[in-house]
Amino acid sequence: MIRGTRAWAAGVLIALLPATCVVAAQARGTKSAESVRELRAAVSLAQHGDEQQALTRVNRLLAEHPDFVAALKLQGALLEDLGPEATAAASYEKALRLAPNDPELLLKVGIYRLVSGKYEDAIALLRQRVRDVSHDRDGLYYLAQAYHFNGQNDLAVKTIAECVKLDPTNASALQKYGELLSSSGDNENALQWLLKAQKADATLPRLDFDMAVASYYNMDFPGTLKYAGSAVASRPNDAEALALYAAAQTSLSQWRDAEQTYARVLVLKPDDVTSLLGMGRCEVELKDYQAAVANLERVERMDPTQILVHFYLSRAYAGLGKTEEAQQEAELHSRMLAQASAGPSNEDKDREKAVWAQARQLLEEGREDEARSLFRKSAVGPAASAGGPYVLVGAVYLSMGETAKAASSLNRALQIEPAARGAHTYLGMAAMQQGDLSKAEREFKAELAHHPNDRAAVAEMGQMRYRQGRWAEAADKLAKSETTDPALLYELCDSYFHLGRARDAEVTAEALAAYARSEPPVMRALLDLATRNGDAGLARRLSGDVK
């Protein structure tokens, strides 16, 4: 839920009615005098508290005059109070189509689109509102939220700062400024603005929670404990506040207290992975190893990509004297930690996935120039170069099976920028798809000559060595790539088995199972690999995960 929206909506009727009267008066030239009188009567009923009768009259008026903007605005305001809100939104949307520059409608529809997750649309409408209305605090407030939810945190902070500058005593704006600063990573300044908000209005919803979050990321755990404790005291069933309170207790080594708080969270959210992991950690520290193993194994089943679960499972198994299991989990933790540090964050992956999906749609429609432009605008790191957009377009073409178009774009990238990162790698991948291993090797070597540590090129070279049956080189390259790709991890596991390195094969298989637990074909292939190589222990562990 977007904080502040409901509070604004609650007062919309009072704010909107006077403006509606003005519009009605201006409508005399286009509407009959009777229509204007009917609208005024509906306004009067609403102002005197008879909203249902006002809605009946305005509905009757719109049945005769469906394009009467002022009546649609009043209908939306009344429905917003009487519900359902979806119907109110439809009235405002229709009015905006008829009056696309109406400032009140730009704000109202912008907010509704923000609440419904249509962030780009909300940004467009709210930016227009801010351009058209001077000193527009409301527009800036919601535009900042739209930027934030759209992942544009720098613009969100800049926008809410403008809002605060216009209204430096507005407690809600001060709180939002602190919240957005915290989201952008500036928790020190965030806490200062949140303290100002507290001074202005200590009753603001969830202000104590926001202060606890900023304190936590400032590594001020006593402060976190104080503010999160306040949040929990006022809202005992707030699972989010309880989880933060437990995290602060854990950071202060208050293991027994933290265990009890996590138990409260799990009553509210029995399958909360983070709280189960926290509970398991507390049980390890309290030397309740059997309980710890039960909770941590549950986490591992629910989300095996949780890297820390393997660290604490290692300690729990060691506490129970299960040395082999402890070592296995410790090695798996180290392997997955290295893989995670080598790759992009989940947020970056999600952003990249969305951009690639959009680019693929453009390429399917034959709009290659627009796809390149999209990549150019979204580029960061190595892709933010002259040849980068051509490389990425080539990569998308390759994923679509359009090998010729992929090669054309990739070769164009190399003409523009001879060392364009990834161009030779994708050309090598195209060659492998066509079975030309000699050309593939030349391309991968060319990539590594320019970028010796390029993990994608190293991984592809390892895959090629695997296809050639050169197990030692395949294992070396695939391991160095720190890949999390299930197909490549399978090949690494198989290479280790060919080399007789059963322990490395088992750790790789466990890592692969963590990343591919929801992919039955991969899990069945991995189980078959373990069985064929006579690793009964690994096969037994995997068999419970194969669907």
Which descriptors apply to this entry?
0% strand, 32 helices, mainly alpha, 547 residues, Serine Threonine Protein Phosphatase 5, Tetratricopeptide repeat
Compile the SSE list and pairings:
Layout: H1 5-10, H2 12-26, H3 33-47, H4 51-64, H5 69-82, H6 85-98, H7 103-115, H8 119-132, H9 137-149, H10 153-166, H11 171-183, H12 187-200, H13 207-217, H14 221-234, H15 239-251, H16 255-268, H17 273-285, H18 289-302, H19 307-319, H20 323-342, H21 346-364, H22 368-378, H23 388-399, H24 403-416, H25 423-433, H26 437-450, H27 455-467, H28 471-480, H29 486-498, H30 502-515, H31 520-532, H32 536-543
Helix pairs in contact: 2-3, 2-5, 3-4, 4-5, 5-6, 6-7, 7-8, 7-9, 8-9, 9-10, 10-11, 11-12, 11-13, 12-13, 13-14, 13-15, 14-15, 15-16, 15-17, 16-17, 17-18, 17-19, 18-19, 19-20, 20-30, 21-22, 22-23, 23-24, 24-25, 25-26, 25-27, 26-27, 27-28, 28-29, 29-30, 31-32
Could you characterize the architecture of this molecule?
The chain has 4 domains: 5-180, Serine Threonine Protein Phosphatase 5, Tetratricopeptide repeat (Alpha Horseshoe); 217-342, Serine Threonine Protein Phosphatase 5, Tetratricopeptide repeat; 344-452, Alpha Horseshoe (Serine Threonine Protein Phosphatase 5, Tetratricopeptide repeat), CATH 1.25.40.10; 475-547, no CATH class. It has helices spanning 5-10, 12-26, 33-47, 51-64, 69-82, 85-98, 103-115, 119-132, 137-149, 153-166, 171-183, 187-200, 207-217, 221-234, 239-251, 255-268, 273-285, 289-302, 307-319, 323-342, 346-364, 368-378, 388-399, 403-416, 423-433, 437-450, 455-467, 471-480, 486-498, 502-515, 520-532, 536-543. It is 77% helix and 0% strand. It has 32 helices and no strands. Helix 3 packs antiparallel against helix 4 and helix 21 (346-364) packs antiparallel against helix 22 (368-378). It is mainly α. The longest helix has 20 residues, at 323-342. The chain starts with a helix and ends with a helix.
